[in-house]
Amino acid sequence: MVKPSSSAATKDDARALIHSLRSAYSATPTNLKIIDLYVVFAVSTALIQVAYMAIVGSFPFNSFLSGVLSCVGTAVLAVCLRIQVNKENKEFKDLPPERAFADFVLCNLVLHLVIMNFLG
Amino acid sequence: MAVPVDTVTKQPQPPPPSPSSLRFAFGNVLAFFILLLIGVLAFSIRLFSVIKYESVIHEFDPYFNYRVTQFLTKNGIYDFWNWFDDRTWYPLGRVIGGTVYPGLTLTAGTIWKVLQSLNIPLSVETVCVFTAPVFSAFAAWATYLLTKEVKGTGAGLTAAVLLAMVPSYISRSVAGSYDNEAVAIFALIFTFYLYIKTLNTGSLFYATLNSLSYFYMVCSWGGYTFIINLIPMHVLLCIVTGRYSSRLYIAYAPLVVLGTLLAALVPVVGFNAVMTSEHFASFLVFIVIHVVALAYYIKGILSPKMFKVAATLVVSVGLVVCLAVVGVLVAVVASSPTKGWSGRSLSLLDPTYASKYIPIIASVSEHQPPTWPSYFMDLNVLAFLVPAGIIACFSPLSDASSFVILYLVMSVYFSGVMVRLMLVLAPAACIMSGIALSEAFEVFTRSIKFYISSLSEFLETDAGDVMPGSNGSPQFDVLKTEKKEDSLKERPSRKNKKKEKDVVVVKEKSSVKSKTEKRPLVLPAEVSFFALFLTVLLGAFYVVHSVWAAAEAYSAPSIVLTSHSHDGLHVFDDFREAYAWLSHNTEVDDKVASWWDYGYQTTAMANRTVIVDNNTWNNTHIATVGTAMSSPEKAGWEIFNSLDVKYVLVVFGGLVGYPSDDINKFLWMVRIGGGVFPHIKEPDYLRDGQYRIDSQATPTMLNSLMYKLSYFRFVETDGGKGYDRVRRTEIGKKHFKLTHFEEVFTTHHWMVRIYKLKPQKNRIRGKTKKTKSKTISSTPRSGTTKKNPWH
């Protein structure tokens, strides 16, 4: 999650941090890990599109916008789903994961209908 | 309205636990019927305009909306999106589909279509007239929902009934006032409700609904930028005050992505949704909330010691990212000419901006800052109840109540900038006052209830010791506080969930709060009876004022005027007379020039092409018309002739005393014209800084086309005096001829005068015909046949 950006002075701290992060993250359940992978994939797709836009130009601006926002939106919604189905999150104890997933699907449906409309 | 609910909860005097569910059910049914009645009230209080006048579209902008709706119902949605209107802004035209907020039109069109398919044959005009009252009922219900999320049912009902008849909102939503605000206020409140609902539940479903509701708001009104700036501010406030929760993330992040995309779907917004500065705040906060969410997540999975190490890294990385993004945004903004802000938004931030740089914005009366009495006129007692409501919102402060407070503060600021935005303040004031009133009612009725129950207990146990003022004894206080604890516990129980992150702080707070909460309960019965009476009286005053405002102040359609005098009621229907004349006596393709105020009405009612209209998108074009009106007759004729104008329409109130006529607007024509064409100078029209049309007026003023068109033959009306009833003076130049214009129609009360441009002469006769009409002709021309019914 966090990249220790070459802070040479606190190398030990950073190493310990990475270690503890890794050990803490390995404890997360598999379904959450899948969601995380999905989020990372979506964000990296968005970044690729932004890089492409920077090189080639943003001429069909609505296409660029819908492409990037599709990725960002997907990532955001997946994060919301992850928050809701996370068992450690006590705020959503009484929310069944099925309901959370249904909401997620609905929101995605709206998002991608809009994007298809906006794509031009 | 909180009274009936309280009486419901009061009815079983010794509170047994078993019938409480029944009581709740009863309360719910009662609340439902109260809401129904509130809807009926909101609808019917706005019908004064129909009853006193007639079922007619009001004012200026509604006529345009009406015309667009007619087009939509006739030609369908696809033609509507592609509609290029060649009847306005001649010779430029206007792309209506891409420059109009379509929410209102589509709403009314859909209602009309549904009614038609149900075989209810209402005309489009009727649907348009009654759209605003129907939506104000919806707005009242939305207010109920919003306030209920913040402070419970009682406050919700009170706020709803206050909103149903707040004069500020009535002024914009009487029957016939078919304007964007009519549906936009409902959309605004409903969007806020869904945001609060999402914030309280953390459900993605409500987040989806929230963005759809935001979409409707974007469709309806340019004021949607208020939402997209207010919600980020609230998110930021929550983050800064340490109230971040994952519900906040769910409420905000999907809204930004979905909302931006949806807003970009509306043609009038389009790419502005990502390109203009009004929207940048939301993107900035979007990034901030992600950084914060990540920080909270890592804090959750790491040990506190490791988190400290991580925190420095996260914060520094986050800061770098933020700075980079801010840098990019600033670069983008700085590269655009107006720094990315539109004129109206700039005048919101800097109230003096418009009057300095954009006379066209400053010239609209509803863009002026309001005066103090208008607050009392539009809000009445709410203005005094609002502070109490703020205090009530602070105990206990939840995410929802902090949002309402923020909404109030921001809307107070904006209403101080532009009188039109008083409309945004009205719901906030209603919510606050609703909370205040309902809290007050709760305290009073509780102490009365307690007094009664203790009285009966005393009668049962020892009948001797009863004294009416004796409920200050410590025994009672214990009982009372216990009860209060119980009733208090019900409400914060669902809010307790949110605050688990900072339990310690909240516990401290709540203990402090419960101590302070106990104090108002020691009210003696007499005091609470009296206070209850006064509160009801206050509400009664509000009702009386609102009904008066609805009936007298805000129901005039402004195209039909009435006046009461000693010999009865006078109706001035001159506008429709003039427009009907135009539509019957001129060619379909004739161009009519007038000041831009009357553009929408001319196109809608007379169906003639106009040069400028109320859309005001092209300042130069309006300045051209302003210059023509400010120029001498010949120069004005040349300008109008170059625009292919056949008829010129002026509004003149000097005969009947109609104050908002063209002579009173004339200085704005000079200013706007002079802003583009520098040979028009405002001081030329002012004598010692004073605007006057009597014999002291400057020659430029007396020779201007507007003066001549307004006062031509005016002296005939009162036997040579030429007394102007609006300016309360005799006019400066009484007898003159028109050389380039010909009067073709003047309405019954002379309120609208229509002139035809004379065709160009075949032969130039030399300088004698120039418009130096120094030759005072004592005998006005009577040879030309005039269709003037005035005698």
From TrEMBL, chain A:
This is Dolichyl-diphosphooligosaccharide--protein glycosyltransferase subunit DAD1. Belongs to the DAD/OST2 family. One of its GO terms (biological process) is protein N-linked glycosylation. It is found in: Endoplasmic reticulum membrane. Component of the oligosaccharyltransferase (OST) complex. Keywords: Apoptosis, Endoplasmic reticulum, Membrane, Transmembrane, Transmembrane helix. It comes from the Eukaryota.
UniProtKB/TrEMBL annotation, chain B:
It catalyses: a di-trans,poly-cis-dolichyl diphosphooligosaccharide + L-asparaginyl-[protein] = N(4)-(oligosaccharide-(1->4)-N-acetyl-beta-D-glucosaminyl-(1->4)-N-acetyl-beta-D-glucosaminyl)-L-asparaginyl-[protein] + a di-trans,poly-cis-dolichyl diphosphate + H(+). Pathway: Protein modification; protein glycosylation. The keyword Glycoprotein applies. Residues 762-791 are annotated as: Disordered. Gene3D superfamilies: 3.40.50.12610. Residues 762-773 have a biased composition (Basic residues). Its EC number is 2.4.99.18. GO terms for molecular function: dolichyl-diphosphooligosaccharide-protein glycotransferase activity; metal ion binding. GO terms for cellular component: endoplasmic reticulum membrane. It holds the Pfam family STT3. Its cofactor is Mn(2+); Mg(2+). Keywords: Endoplasmic reticulum, Glycoprotein, Glycosyltransferase, Magnesium, Manganese, Membrane, Metal-binding, Transferase, Transmembrane, Transmembrane helix. It is a multi-pass membrane protein. It is an enzyme of class 2 (transferase). Residues 780-791 have a biased composition (Polar residues). The chain crosses the membrane at residues 24-45, 122-146, 152-170, 182-208, 214-237, 249-274, 280-298, 310-334, 375-394, 401-419, 521-544. It is found in: Endoplasmic reticulum membrane. Residues 29-432 form the Oligosaccharyl transferase STT3 N-terminal domain. Component of the oligosaccharyltransferase (OST) complex. This is dolichyl-diphosphooligosaccharide--protein glycotransferase. It comes from Artemisia annua (Sweet wormwood). The lineage of its organism: Eukaryota, Viridiplantae, Streptophyta, Embryophyta, Tracheophyta.
